[in-house]
Amino acid sequence: MNTAERKVVRTIAVASGKGGVGKTNITANLAIGLSKLNKKVLVFDADLGLSNIDVILNLATKYNIKHLFSGEKKLKDLIVDGPLGIKVLPASSGIQELTELDEFQRLRLVEEFESYDGGIDYLLIDTSSGISSNVAFFCVAAQEIIIIASPEPTALTDAYALIKVLFTKYHEKNFKVLVNDVKNEKEAADVYRRLSTAAERFLSISLDYTGYVPHDDHVPKAVRRQKALMDVYPDSEAAKSLLRISERLINDNSSNVKGTLQFFLGGLLNAKC
User: Fold this and answer.
1) Opening angle at CA 164, ends 246 and 130, nearest 5
2) pLDDT in tens, 228-270
C-alpha cells in the first residue's frame, strides 16, 4: 500500500517521569476504551528492555521486539491479539542493550513499520519511565504526548522534569496531562494546576488537561488478575473515567490530525536522541 492510500493513524506516546504512577495500565485501558468506541488500536510496548503490557494483560507472546532487531521475525509476526480487539506489539524482558536503541535498530524499526498494514486508527506507545533517550525518541516521533502525573510529590516533580527535557532539548511544546490515582476531581485539578503553573512560569508553555482517573480498589484487583480493568470491571469508577478520556481523545482535534504511519516513521528517522 503506498503512502497516498494509507489511512490516517494517530500516534500517541504515553510517558511519565517516574515508575509506579500506572502508565502502562492506563495505556492498556485507553487502548481498550478506544476499541470500545470502534477504533482499531495497536499498543507498542516501547519499554524495550522490560516488557510490561503482555504481563498486565497475561498475553502469550512467543516472539518479541528482540526477534525483530535480530532479523529473525517481521513486525507482523510479533503482534498478538489483546482483549476486546486491541493488538499488542510486545517488548523483551531483561535485555539491557535494548534500553538505548542504536541507529541500526531505529532504521530497522522504521522499515518494519513502513511495511506494516494493519488497518489501525491509533498507535499507542507505552514508553519506559524516566528520562532516557528511548523515551525522548518515541515522544519526539509521536504526534501527541500524554504525560501521566499523580499527587505524589516525586511523581509531580519527575513529570515536570520530563516535560522540561522534551521542551528544552527536543523543542516539544504540546503536552496532554492525565492525572491518575486521585481522591476526586478537585485533587486532580490541583495536580494539573501545579504542573501547569510550573510549565508556564519556567518554560512558557501551556499544558492541556485531558482528564483524571480516581483511586479505585478495582484497579489493583484487575492487575492481580492480569486482566484489563475495562474488561473485567467496566462499571468501576476508574473504568468509566478512562472511557470518558478515550472519548475526549477521539473528539480532541481528530479532524486536524494529518498523516499516516508515515508521520510516525518520519519522526523516528528525524529524532536525534
Assistant:
1) 70
2) 999 999 999 999 999 999 999 999 864 444 444 555 666 565 6
Q: Mean per-residue pLDDT for 119-137?
A: 88
Strands 80-81 and 87-89: antiparallel
Place of cell 470491571: 233
Which helix (H) or strand (E) is 25 found in, with range?
Answer: helix 23-36
Transcribe 61-117 into DSSP letters. -S--HHHHHTTSS-HHHH-EE-GGG-EEE---BS-GGGGS--HHHHHHHHHHHHH--
The whole-model pTM stands at 0.90
Give the C-alpha separation, 240 to 235, whole Å: 6
Instruction: Of 103, 138, 166, give the one whose Cα is nearest residue 265.
Output: 138
Question: Is-contact 25 219, C-beta < 8 A?
Answer: yes
**149 touches 156 (CB < 8 A):** yes
What H or E segment, with its residue span, contains residue 13? strand 10-15
Residue reference for cell 480493568: 229
| Domains of the chain, each with CATH number or no CATH | 7-254 (3.40.50.300)
Q: Which value, to the nearest 10 degrees, does the dihedral of the CA atoms of residues 108, 110, 113, 114 take? A: -110
Determine how many CB atoms are found less than 10 A away from the CB of residue 66.
Answer: 20
**pLDDT per residue over 192-202, tens digit each?**
999 999 999 99
Residue 244 CB burial class (10 angstroms; 0-12, 13-18, ≥19):
middle
